[in-house]
Amino acid sequence: MKKIFGAALLSVLGLAFFPSRGEVAYAAGGAAAADLVQHCLDLVQLNVARKIAPALPATPHTVQSPAKILPTQCLAGDLEEIKSALKNQIASCERKSAEEKAQTFQFGCRMVKNEDYCLNANKAMLKIATLPNMDYATFVNRAAQEFDWYESNGAQDNDGKFKTGTTRFTGYYSPTAVDASADPSDVYRYPVYAAPEGLTYFENPKSALGQGCGVDVVTKLPIHWCIDNKDGTFSALPTREQIAQGALDAKSRKIAYFRSLYDVSSFMLEGAGSVNLKHKDGSVESVVLNFAGSNGRPNNMIGDVLKCENKKINGSLAAYYARHPEEAYRDTVHYNSSTVFYKRGVSYEGVDHIAVTPNASVATDPTSIPTGTVILLNVPAANACKTVSSMAVAQDIGGRIKGPHIDRYTGAGPAAGRKAESFNNSGLVFLATPKGAGSPVLDCRSKTAN
Questions:
Q1: Distance between CA atoms of 196 and 303, rounded to whole angstroms?
Q2: Domain assignment present for 86
Q3: What is the CA radius of gyration of the chain?
Q4: Which CATH number characterizes residue 84's domain?
């Protein structure tokens, strides 16, 4: 059996493991000795952990049958976009091993195989979408009739801003043409890294099976991103500050250098984007950088850091941090232990190397809505329709996408960024499986819509 080491006993890639500032404080006797800002951020992470607890493990979804109850009266979408998302998902599902295809997820009172909700459902959806003279509304209404649908349970204990039982909707995009350099200089000082060798992701680490590399010292949640030491053990990765101080220099290549730490943090927030990469010979190369993993550490957003510092900044954060580099380091590196690793790509990708499609790809928590699921989104509308619905495919994940939260991909560039920033509301989510798919769950009671 593989051994699992706790954070205090780890070595990182053959280097000494140095606990973060918060870890030192807690090990030394708790919050009384801690940096007050760090303690505040730890409480934020504990609150996030509390809110996502109902999604681990996933609870059953409410069976929605017959399909006439689906909100398909007002629709907004593009048939070519959903066809693109379906094709990309089918290619990804077909690459899965027989073992992966046999894995199950609970929809209502049925355990449905990955092969059914990921591969077969997408194939059947695409078959409908490519019928002659098909339009978006006809496609959605045909799908409403030809599949079993399940309504997501939504948030069971909401934060007061959104109605209990609903799902939160946000947006993300791909930054483009970010100024960067292939080599460090006085202007380009801040590197982003390629994934280190052995980087491994455990969707649901089971320590009894030798999976994972311990739990976070504050939240006690399992660490999903680990380093495979190739000797039957796994190690946690260093914090962002430890990486900045050289902890991965011998193990991970610096893939580009940015002008500012704020640019690095903004890029990491979206997960992927493109850079105008300057070379020593004066040439400039347009390069797509896709998410290749993370160090698995808690992600303290800049907004949370500023709140914990009891600080309000007027004007642009980018301009402020450009004038105050020490504060930029403190807020984006010292107080945020999370970092993202990158790889070169051709198109923007989600999880499992799936090319994402504007408006038809979404990021979900796979313990709540599994990757590959075709879903119908229903959100409030500012027109004659009280709500509007559209189809999408779960094709991405995110560090802060936990529980009943969907992050919709809006595309690349400034316009897509503005659109992504406009999303922050709640609505309903419905999940599709092939008719009759799955095996019954014994002694399961699932509310059925009339």
A1: 29
A2: yes
A3: 22
A4: 2.40.40.10
Q: What is the 3 state secondary structure string of 291-303?
A: EEEECCCCCCCHH
Find the domain containing 404 and state its range: 59-172+355-440
- List C-alpha distances in Å: 261 to 254, 276, 304, 356, 421: 15, 17, 17, 26, 21
Cβ atoms of 443 and 60 within 8 Å: the answer is no
Residue 285 lies in a domain: no
| Rounded CA separation 69/72 (Å) | 8
Q: How far is CA 68 from CA 92, 144, 374, 381, 387, in A?
A: 31, 7, 18, 21, 16
Task: Determine which helix (DSSP H) or strand (DSSP E) holds 48, and give its type and residue range.
Answer: helix 36-52
| DSSP 3-state of 410 | strand
The string of pLDDT tens digits covering residues 231-255 is 999 999 999 999 999 999 888 999 9
Is the peptide bond prior to 66 cis by the omega test (within 30 degrees of 0)? yes
Q: Based on the structure, what is the number of domains in the chain?
A: 1
Q: Is residue 102 part of a domain?
A: yes
pLDDT tens, position by position, 133-163: 999 999 999 999 999 999 887 765 555 567 7
In sequence order, the β-bridge partners of residue 393 are 361, 374
Residue 392 lies in a domain: yes
